[in-house]
Amino acid sequence: MDFLTFMSVFLLLISTSCYGLSENHHGDEEGGLLVVAPAKQQKEFDYFLLALLWPGTLCQGTNHCCSANACCRSNATSMFTIHGLWVNYNDGTWPACCNNGSNFDIKKITPLLGGLQIYWPSLSCNLESTCDGGKGLFWAHEWEKHGTCATPVIWDEYTYFLTTLNIYFKYNITKILIEEGYIPSNSEKYPLGGIVSAIQNAVRATPLLVCSDGAVQELRLCFCKNFEPQDCPNNVTPEEACPRYVSLPEYVPRI
Ligand code: U2P
């Protein structure tokens, strides 16, 4: 079975109703801080968050190039790329680094690497921190920090990356925005409310946008544990909040 066929089958499997699966919540709420706890003490997460990056904004900060950095590709990356699939608590905190025994192993995701390089690239030359205090690939950071906390829904690295790609393809945010006239531009500004409405209409849930200097930097979609869309809590910091009119800068290759 090829990669796309496998993903289509998987997508069918995950389209079920939202209710009834997200009630396995126990333990006390932690207040306002990042929660890092070993797996045994880990309280189960409340919802998934798919974080998408807008390279047109992030690549403006690229100072030097390397082959690992998608900002340095000569062909335009005019689409949202994946930041990560995160697991959060309803109180605005999230677990992190839940299983230090599950160090990232690139061999486990060999069949997905073609898709990951296109849709989940690093937008920097720097290695990222891993849970053991070392440095590793962007994918290693996301799996170890977030993916290991996705039990009991996701238990292994391969499923984490495959699931994330599937959700990303199912909700093609770039296409949704372009079809509604939100075209990447270095001169236009768009009403934030219009962008949010376009996504609400297509996804049936409210996204969360993060901005940098008035430009869209990140777009977050939230899902309950069976991957049905749910509204994202509005918990961005004042520095990350978007103004009423935002830009969606065009990608300018850095080479
Ligand atoms: O927002 C800064 C970084 O905090 C982590 N984050 C943020 C919001 C949220 O709901 N969950 C979450 O994990 C992200 O950390 P990263 O994956 O980049 O290490 C986010 O970038």
From TrEMBL:
InterPro entries per UniProt: Ribonuclease_T2_eukaryotic (IPR033697), RNase_T2-like (IPR001568), RNase_T2-like_sf (IPR036430), RNase_T2_His_AS_2 (IPR033130)
Active site: 83, 142, 146
Keywords of the record: Disulfide bond, Endonuclease, Hydrolase, Lyase, Nuclease, Signal
An example Gene Ontology molecular-function term: RNA binding
Span of the signal peptide: 1-20
Pfam family, one: Ribonuclease_T2
Stored CDD domains: RNase_T2_euk (cd01061)
The keyword Nuclease appears for this protein: yes
GO CC, one annotated term: extracellular region
Source taxon at top rank: Eukaryota
Biological process (GO), any one: RNA catabolic process
Keyword GTP-binding among UniProt keywords: no
Family statement: Belongs to the RNase T2 family.
UniProt-recorded name of the protein: Uncharacterized protein
